């Protein structure tokens, strides 16, 4: 069995003096998709922000390991450069910064060297074709005026270009209709095809995206704790029984 690429060990996280995560454990190996499901207020977005290194969320116990190294205290940009990627539930708009320029700066930082405009443009065009995106997309300002589906597809484009080793997708399906959801899910699969060792943590409310992405493991988060873990069938049981079946 392959060594874990990403581990969450007994993670406790507080925000504004209130403990939200109360001992989360999770292990992801290369190439695996793990789905983390939970109702509103269970701590899903807190976990995503803590894994990003947001200063608004304080780790009070436990640790996060990436490729065996403790990254709990690493700054967000250091995590990104090392190969961790977070797709936001609500991607921010950055007026005046074209998508292509943003990607060039981010990838140059990730690789520790300046990327040529031509090299990056060719890579962006290739991935836009795979993701079914209009070529003019790269010249638009980052997320400004984007629809919900466009924002999520842009997150997938960033993931493709940045070539991370682990990706945390925070409610990527949020606000998408079924057609947009399928487009985004196919995009994630395209990235996984290109990078089969990519580990993915998919944080979601609903089962519908899981029918597209087929997770290896499913975890249920209730009140800041993982209360159950299992194979894909666990999501089907959740769909039938609801979260109340797991509440204390």
What does it look like?
This protein is of the alpha/beta class and 248 residues long. Helix content is 35%, strand content 29%. The chain has a single domain (6-246), classed as 3-Layer(aba) Sandwich (Rossmann fold), CATH 3.40.50. It has eight helices and twelve strands. It has a six-stranded mixed sheet with strand order 6-9-10-3-11-12, with helices on both faces. Strands 2-1-4-5 form a four-stranded antiparallel sheet, covered by helices on one side. Strands 7-8 form a two-stranded antiparallel sheet.
Descriptive labels:
248 residues; Rossmann fold; six-stranded mixed beta sheet
Topology:
Elements: E1 6-15, E2 18-28, E3 33-37, H1 44-52, E4 58-66, E5 69-70, H2 76-82, E6 84-87, E7 94-98, H3 99-111, H4 117-130, E8 141-142, H5 148-162, E9 166-170, H6 178-194, E10 199-204, H7 210-213, E11 217-222, E12 225-230, H8 233-241
Parallel strand pairs: 3-10, 3-11, 6-9, 9-10
Antiparallel strand pairs: 1-2, 1-4, 4-5, 7-8, 11-12
Helix pairs in contact: 3-5, 5-6
In terms of quaternary structure, what is this?
single chain
Per CATH, the superfamily is: P-loop containing nucleotide triphosphate hydrolases
Number of strands: 12
Shape assignment: globular
Distance between the termini: 34 Å
CATH fold description:
Rossmann fold
Task: Give the tally of structural domains.
Answer: 1
Largest sheet: 6 strands, mixed
- Proper CATH architecture: 3-Layer(aba) Sandwich
Using the coordinates above, name the CATH class.
Alpha Beta
Radius of gyration: 18 Å
Strand content: 25-35%
Low-confidence stretches: none
Order of helices and strands: EEEHEEHEEHHEHEHEHEEH
Overall pLDDT score: 86
Instruction: Name the strands of the widest sheet in spatial order.
Output: 6-9-10-3-11-12
Structural class: alpha/beta
